[in-house]
Amino acid sequence: MIQFKQYFVPVQIQETTFCREGTRTMDARRAQDILRHIINDEDYGAAMLDKISVTESIEVLTKMLPDCVATAQNDNNINDAGFFSQMIHNYYPLILDKIKNAEHLWVVYSDNTGYPYMIDGDLFVLYDYANHAELEKKLNTAGYQVALESVTPTDFRNEVAHMYRNGYEKIRFTDGKGEPFVVAKEDLYSFEDFFNEEYMTNPGLQRAMIEFFQEFRKNTAADAGREEILKKREDAMIRTMVHAEYMVPCIKEETEDMVEISHPFIDLTDRIQDKEEGERVIAIPAFTDGFEMDKCYEGHHENMLYQYDELVNLVEELGASGVIINCLGISYYMKLELMHKINM
């Protein structure tokens, strides 16, 4: 059983004083029972927290305890306000552990990108499935075409790892109806839990590509406002591309006299519509990190790192049509002419 560090013993508290009516969704009797454990138990309700649901735990942290703090402050009761503020501080890591070990969470995925739906850099996770249809309907009506994917604790940990790669900042845990419980990814797991300092990531570029294509592939009519958003996101993506570093797969063959390096090509002729009649479209694959590269070339190729201007020179030197970034992720093809244009 987890126990809180004991900071001080609270003064006698009148249970009926706290938790204003109308600000919580759980039954009032249930709320008072939980509050009694927090006030009276030697462990300040830690054992109780182990037994209640994730939904109730989040409600205790985000609604009940802040409500108690506000009521105590309104009554000028400094001791009680301090006690409940300390309980918020103590409960926060315990509730995060409870979330991390939850049997079921549901990540909101975008069918437009194949990645988790992103809003202002954040990821959506549903912790209570009861109102899932309402959330899906709201996003689908807006044109984003989402689907919920159930994740185990191991799956959820992997999702947080990908947040570091893909530039997501926080998770908005939601029950599908109320205000989300927002948690920074660093509060759940650190970068070092997944990668070492030598692991190459491009979170800025990954995020820019996800944000652009999520909006670009949105199933809704064009209007001036949306065109402005698309232009802004495309400009941000291109700026990030120009300043990014890329992994390019290669095969190295060594002889006594030299090292010969060759690069694979991908034939995109059948996939690219904007081309001259009879033109073959041959692209050099480039990747934002090792995970994206391993989707295509795991164990078969080495890689070389290229700055953007070096990548332009490589495409030109090899006589390729252009470059395709993350061909099995959010793929983006740029022909050589465009590569030169945005590099000016």
- Largest beta sheet, briefly? 6 strands, mixed
Instruction: Tell me the span between the first and last alpha carbons.
Output: 62 Å
Task: Specify the helix fraction band.
Answer: 40-55%
**Number of continuous helical runs:** 12
Q: Averaged pLDDT, please?
A: 89
Beta-strand percentage range: 15-25%
How is the secondary structure organized here?
Layout: H1 28-40, H2 46-51, H3 54-74, H4 78-100, E1 105-110, E2 118-119, E3 122-126, H5 132-141, E4 146-151, H6 153-166, E5 170-174, E6 181-184, H7 185-188, H8 203-216, H9 224-242, E7 245-254, E8 259-262, E9 266-267, E10 282-286, H10 290-297, E11 302-307, H11 308-317, E12 322-325, E13 332-335, H12 336-342
Parallel strand pairs: 3-5, 10-12
Antiparallel strand pairs: 1-3, 1-4, 2-3, 5-6, 7-8, 7-11, 9-10, 12-13
Helix pairs in contact: 3-4, 6-8, 8-9
Protein name: SseB family protein
Organism: Lachnospira intestinalis
Give a brief rundown of this model.
It comes from Lachnospira intestinalis. Mean pLDDT is 89; it is low at 1-24.
